[in-house]
Amino acid sequence: MSTPLIVSASPHATSGATTPKIMWSVVLALAPATAYAIWLFGYPALSVIAVTVFFCVFFETLCGLAMRRPPTATDGSAALTGLILALSLPPGLPLWICAVGAFVAIVISKAVFGGLGQNPFNPAMAGRVFLLIAFPADLTRWLVPQQHTGDTLFGEPVTTLDAQGRITEYGLTNVDAITAATPIGLLREKGANIVADLPGNIEFLLGHINGSAGETSAFLLLAGGIFLLIRRVIAWHIPVAYLGTVALFAAITHLVDPSTYAGPAFHLLSGGVMMGAWFIATDYVTSPMFPKGRILFGVGAGILTMVIRLWGGYPEGVSFAVLLMNACVPFFNAWTRPKPFGATTATSGGAQQ
Predict the structure, then answer these.
(1) Shortest CA distance to 278 belongs to which of 315, 319, 235, 314?
(2) Any residues with CB less than 8 A from the CB of 134 and at least 6 apart, and which?
(3) Is 106 within 8 Å of 84 (Cβ atoms)?
(4) Would you state the pLDDT for residue 171?
(5) Residue 268 has pLDDT above 70, yes or no
(6) Which of 260 and 210 is assigned the larger pLDDT?
(7) Peptide bond into 11 cis (omega under 30)
(8) pLDDT tens by residue, 147-182
(9) Could you state, in order of their start, the residue ranges of all structural domains in the chain?
């Protein structure tokens, strides 16, 4: 007796991947970099992370109740949004600003569009860009790592102690906080005068620099991204295309004028490029569905990041680049959609297989 042919709707093959497993896997991949940032900056980083994650989960719960939907706060999506947003903010940021960012990320950028899976823009980056535009002074005030007080950056002392034990910053005493510009910010500010004095690549790799909590250890972020690749949580197309484009763009500009533009290693290891390539641009909802589209997405994000870094009004362009490429995702999906097996194409001579 022959076995009957069973016809059913797709998907025909399933896996054990669920939304909670995916979200908590990304949180786990970010855990080493998060722990390192807390060790590096201390309570200011811990408070920003805790408050931002709490309010993202809180607003997610409220939106679910208001929309009369099953609770989604435990699936990890809101916690992951809060963690990525917190890691993109300066340690020591006023906590009420963190709560505002969480509101924009969850309510305005996500719930308004229908919740998880419906938002066209990355919620964490939408929250960060809003805060950067609304509170530019607070979002560009960077805390010097507690573990490196007294270090020099580009040959200049960042923080020292005077004879009375008071903290001084660039010669000023009685400062309210220990702050300094990020390497990218100083590069934009002083230009060709400091290219030759850039810290060694090992400093950027290990995180011995100031910046947001997610811009410290490029090594731990890279390790987390490789972990996601091994677990098949993300595909290689976007990270490789993004990082490769940044490296190529930086190499070309450095060859044209090495006294003005830093080389590829600086741009790959500093700022939010590693965070953006592995954990932000690869967001399932706001990135293309098909491999060719993902490669185009990564290339576009890399180009925009470097254009903003080198010639834009802001020293860092990752968040803006990702949001602009999010807007192109419907086009990428339509343009790179594979032709179904057996499909025909109409021509002037009739249908062609």
Answers:
(1) 235
(2) 100
(3) no
(4) 39
(5) yes
(6) 260
(7) yes
(8) 554 444 444 444 444 444 443 443 333 334 444 445
(9) 19-139, 143-211, 234-332
Which of 41-55, 159-173, 210-224, 242-256 shows the lowest per-residue confidence on average (mean pLDDT)?
159-173
| Cα distance between residue 78 and residue 57, in whole Å | 5
Q: How many helices (H) and strands (E) does the chain have?
A: 15, 7
Cα distance between the two ends of the chain: 35
Q: Which amino acid is present at 77?
A: S
Chain Cα centroid distance, residue 168? 32
The angle formed by the CA atoms of residues 286, 292 and 297, to the nearest 5 degrees, is 40
Q: Which band of pLDDT confidence, cut at 50, 70 and 90, is reported for residue 208?
A: low
Q: Which residue has the tokens 């993300």?
A: 234
pLDDT beyond 70 at 184: no
CA distances to 253, 271, 281, 298 from 90, in Å: 29, 12, 20, 26
Residue 344: is its pLDDT beyond 70? no
The C-alpha atoms of residue 326 and residue 283 are separated, in whole angstroms, by 10
Q: Under 8 Å CB-to-CB from 40, ≥6 apart: which residues?
A: 145, 146, 147, 148, 207, 216
Interval 225-230 mean pLDDT: 95
Concatenating the DSSP letter of every residue in 29-46 gives HHHHHHHHHHHHH-HHHH
Residue whose token pair is 């600003």: 97
Q: Which long-range CB contacts under 8 A does 113-120 form with residues at least 24 apart?
A: 115/63, 115/64, 115/67, 115/69, 115/72, 116/19, 116/72, 116/75, 116/77, 116/285, 117/285, 118/285, 119/285, 119/286, 120/286, 120/326, 120/327, 120/329
Residues counted in the chain: 353
- Segment 274-294 shows an average pLDDT of 93
